[in-house]
Write a structure and sequence with these properties.
Largest sheet: none
Strand content: under 5%
Distance between the termini: 28 Å
Order of helices and strands: HHHH
Helix content: 55-70%
Number of strands: 0
Length: 146
C-alpha cells in the first residue's frame, strides 16, 4: 500500500471560488424579499382591522413593530434553512435587508421618511426577528458516537 502525499488531503472538496458565496448572497436576498412580503401582508391585515374598527388606530405603531418581527422571522427562517451555516448572521442579515427595503419604500412613498423619524425601533424589531430565526433555525450538532 502506498502512502498519499501530504498535500492531497483536501482533494475531495470542491474549490471555494466564490460560487458558494454568491449562492449564499442570493439566498439572503430571497429571504429578505420573503420577509418584506410577509411584513407587508401583516401590515395590510392590521390596516384592515383598523378600518373595520376591530383594533384602535393608536396601536398601529406596535403593529408595525410586530410586522417587522414577523417578517424578519419568516424570511430569516427561509434563508437559514437554505444556507445552513452561520445561522445567526444569516438571520440578522435578512433583518437588515428587510429594514432597508422598508426604509426604501418609505423614502419612495413619503418624502420625510428617515431613520431618525422613528426608524430605530423598526430596525431593532427587524433585526430581532431575523436573529430569532437564526437561533430557531440552527440545527443542534450531532453527538459523536464512541
Amino acid at each position: 500500500m502506498t502512502k498519499k502525499p501530504r498535500g492531497t488531503r483536501r482533494e475531495g472538496r470542491p474549490e471555494d471560488s466564490g460560487g458558494q458565496w454568491l449562492t449564499a448572497m442570493c439566498e439572503l436576498l430571497k429571504g429578505g424579499l420573503a420577509a418584506a412580503l410577509a411584513a407587508l401582508v401583516a401590515l395590510a391585515a392590521c390596516a384592515l382591522l383598523v378600518s373595520w374598527g376591530v383594533i384602535p388606530e393608536r396601536t398601529m405603531d406596535r403593529a408595525a413593530l410586530a410586522a417587522g418581527v414577523l417578517g424578519g422571522l419568516t424570511g430569516g427562517l427561509l434563508a437559514v434553512r437554505r444556507i445552513g451555516r452561520s445561522t445567526l448572521l444569516v438571520g440578522a442579515g435578512v433583518g437588515a435587508i428587510l429594514f432597508l427595503v422598508l426604509l426604501s419604500a418609505g423614502l419612495l412613498l413619503f418624502e420625510d421618511a428617515s431613520v431618525s423619524n422613528g426608524g430605530v425601533p423598526i430596525l431593532l424589531s427587524c433585526l430581532c426577528g431575523g436573529a430569532m430565526a437564526g437561533i430557531l433555525g440552527s440545527r443542534p450538532k450531532k453527538k459523536r458516537k464512541r
